[in-house]
Write a structure and sequence with these properties.
Elements: E1 21-25, E2 31-35, H1 48-60, H2 64-71, H3 73-83, E3 90-94, H4 100-108, E4 113-118, H5 121-128, E5 137-141, E6 154-160, H6 171-181, E7 182-193, H7 201-210, H8 224-229, E8 232-242, E9 245-254
Parallel strand pairs: 3-4, 3-6, 4-5, 6-7
Antiparallel strand pairs: 1-2, 7-9, 8-9
Length: 260
């Protein structure tokens, strides 16, 4: 059944009709089309971690693009390369943030459907400014722990710099949700802060350990074993650095299925 959209966001949902969608009239000249989804996860659960993340990003939402420009631009380009977007795809970006990548996904997927989901309403307010009228897609307030979509809805899921905010004990839970909403063979592209191998990278490890609030809780991680545990096969992993900030970008697919 259709998702109950959070109050105040319904006017942002501008979709085109597709199989598996439910269409209804919107306001003004908008048409709102909702996924034919299960009710699960329609509301953001308020656990301590999510509340902390929401508060942190409420403070920095307007300035986040500056940080992203300094540290995340290269990773975003590689993520788009790994995404291999094809005409008519259904794409979900989890932790869409201020929409820097979301706008480019819309541009590259004009005949498909592109959804951006984020836990922070303040970040989504910034993402709204990058919306491209006439494209099929939308912005959704929601949690990666309970994605508000039915099983096997998306061809591609992209998640940049979110998993490195989570406790390692939550990696499997989130990756299982990613796997659940992906169609087979499924394509997953994620980027995150990495430990790094150069001496200069030790500075960022020190910052993450001693002043985590400066990085909004982000810290270096190595999620490979959790991807394998949750049924993904890593296709390619690239280690990079931007302005000395160590990062990794990887592409994975659901195990026992192979991309063309």
């Amino acid at each position: 059944m259709p998702c109950a959209w959070p109050h105040g966001f319904h006017r942002w949902k501008v979709f085109a009709g597709r199989d598996g969608f439910v269409e209804r009239s919107g306001q003004a000249d908008e048409t709102t089309v909702l996924f034919d989804i299960e009710k699960r996860g329609a509301r953001v659960s308020k656990n301590d971690l999510e509340s902390t993340i929401q508060k942190a990003y409420a403070k920095i939402a307007r300035l986040y693009d500056v940080w992203a420009w300094l540290t995340e631009t290269r990773a975003a380009r590689i993520a788009l390369e790994f995404a291999q977007i094809e005409p008519g795809m259904r794409i979900l970006e989890v932790a869409t943030g201020t929409g820097r990548l979301f706008g480019e996904l819309l541009k590259r997927n004009p005949t498909g459907v592109t959804i951006g989901l984020d836990l922070s309403p303040h970040m989504l307010q910034q993402a709204r400014k990058k919306w491209r009228p006439g494209f099929a897609g939308g912005l959704v307030l929601g949690s990666a722990f309970q994605l508000p979509f039915a099983d096997q809805q998306f061809d591609l899921l992209i998640c940049n710099f979110m998993i490195d905010l989570l406790p390692e004990s939550d990696f499997s839970r989130v990756l299982e949700e990613f796997r659940r909403v992906l169609r087979r063979p499924g394509r997953l592209v994620i980027s995150y802060m990495a430990p790094g191998t150069k001496k200069v990278h030790s500075f960022w490890r020190w910052v993450a350990r001693n002043y985590p609030s400066l990085l909004t809780g982000c810290r270096p991680i190595s999620p490979e074993k959790y991807l394998e545990k949750t049924g993904f096969r890593i296709v390619v992993l690239r280690k990079i650095s931007q302005n000395t900030f160590p990062e990794e970008v990887l592409k994975a697919e659901i195990a026992n299925h192979h991309s063309a």
